[in-house]
Amino acid sequence: MAINLATKKILVTGGAGFLGSHLVEKLIAHGVSQSDITVPDSRVCDLRVKENCVRAVENQDIVIHLAAKAGGIGLNRAKPGELFYDNIVMGAYLMESARTAGVSKFVAIATICAYPKFTPVPFREEYLWEGYPEETNAPYGLAKKMLLVQAQAYRKQYGMNIITLFPVNMYGSRDNFNPDSSHVLPALIQKISEAKKKSQPFIEVWGSGTPTREFLYVEDAAEWIVLATEQYDKADPVNLAPGMEISIKDLVTLVCRFMDYTGEIRWDFSKPDGQPRRMLDISRAVREIGLIPITPFEEGLRKTIEWYNKNNG
Predict the structure, then answer these.
(1) 3-state SS, residue 29
(2) For burial by CB atoms within 10 Å, which of 21, 38, 109, 135 has the most?
(3) Where are the strands (E) in 18-104, listed by range?
C-alpha cells in the first residue's frame, strides 16, 4: 500500500545540498508541508557522531538519507580513507538510530560506483556482487554499498521497511562546480567557462575520452526518489537512470558546442579513465515504481549551463 507522504514527518539528510534541495521541493509538490520536513544543518549536526543521528531521527516517520561525502576521480584519489569512513559511519549510525527510534521507513541512496569495474552493460542490480568496483572510487562505492547490506539485514531481522536506490551520475542546477571535488560534467562546465574567460586556446581533460557515462537530470532523480518512498517496499535494490550512454569524448564535444568554446581539447592520458562503461538497466524501477518523464539529455544540459552562467558569471 502506498504511503501518504502528506501525513508524515520526513527527515532529509543532505537536504540542503544538490539533490537534497530538489528533493525537498518535490516532497512539497507531493503535498508534504514544509514544516514537516527536517533538514539537518551539517555545520551543527555531524552525522558521523551517533548522538547527532539519534537526535536527528527523533519524532520522524520517514528518513531519506542523501547525505554523503562524494566527488569526482580527483577527490576519490586524494581522500579514499575519508570517503570510506565518513560514508559508512553516517549510514550505519543513522539507520541504527532510525530503527531504535521506530522510524517507519528508511530510504537509502547508494551509488553507481558500487558496481564492479567490468559490469556488463546495461548494469542489472544482480550484478552488484560480481566483482570489485573500479579502483579509484572503490572505497566510496563499497561504503555506500554497505547501506544495502545493512538495509537487507535489518529488513530480515527487524522487518523494517528500508529500501536502497542506486542512481547514476546526476546533473542540473545547484550542482557542485568546485574543480577540486566536482564530478565530470560540472567540472567540464567550470573548466570550459574559465577557458573562455581567459581566452585559453585549449583545455586539458583527464583520461582518453573513451569511457562512457550516463546522466540523470536531478529533478527527475528527485521525482523518482519521492515515488519510491511512497510506493516501494522490497529488499531488492533499484537502479535509477535515464537509459542513455555517452562517451566522455562526445560529452566534452557537446559541452564545448553548447558553451561556444572552439579551443583545442587535449587528453591527459596520464590520468585515470575510471570505470570503462556505465549504463543502468532500469526495468526494475519501471516495473516497481513506474517510468517517469525523463528530461532529454541535451535539454537538461542546456538548462544546467544556463544556470551555471547565471550564477557564476
Answers:
(1) helix
(2) 109
(3) 37-38, 62-65
Domain span holding position 286: 5-171+216-243+278-295
User: Which one is catalytic: 93, 140, 154, 308?
Assistant: 140
CATH of the domain at 14: 3.40.50.720
So what's the pLDDT on residue 211? Answer: 95
Q: Say which residues have a Cβ less than 8 Å from residue 22's Cβ, sequence separation at least 6.
A: 172, 174, 218, 219, 221, 222
Give the pLDDT band (50/70/90) at residue 313. Answer: low
- 190-238 residue pLDDT tens: 999 999 999 999 999 999 999 999 999 999 999 999 999 999 999 999 9
Asked, for residue 289, whether it belongs to a domain, the answer is yes
CA dist., res. 239 & res. 249, Å (int) = 25
Taking alpha carbons only, the member of 19, 27, 90 closest to residue 62 is 27
Whether 271 is in a domain gets the answer no
Q: How far is CA 199 from the centre of its chain?
A: 33
Query: What are the pLDDT digits (tens) for 77-129?
Result: 999 999 999 999 999 999 999 999 999 999 999 999 999 999 999 999 999 99
Catalytic residue list contains 85: no
Mean pLDDT over the full length of the chain: 96
Residues 269-306: tens digit of each pLDDT: 999 898 999 999 999 999 999 999 999 999 999 999 99
Phi, psi (deg, nearest 5) at residue 25: -65, -40
All three cell numbers of 103, joined, read 522510524
Amino acid identity for residue 76 in this structure: N
User: In the chain, how many domains are there?
Assistant: 1
Task: Specify if 185 maps to a domain.
Answer: no
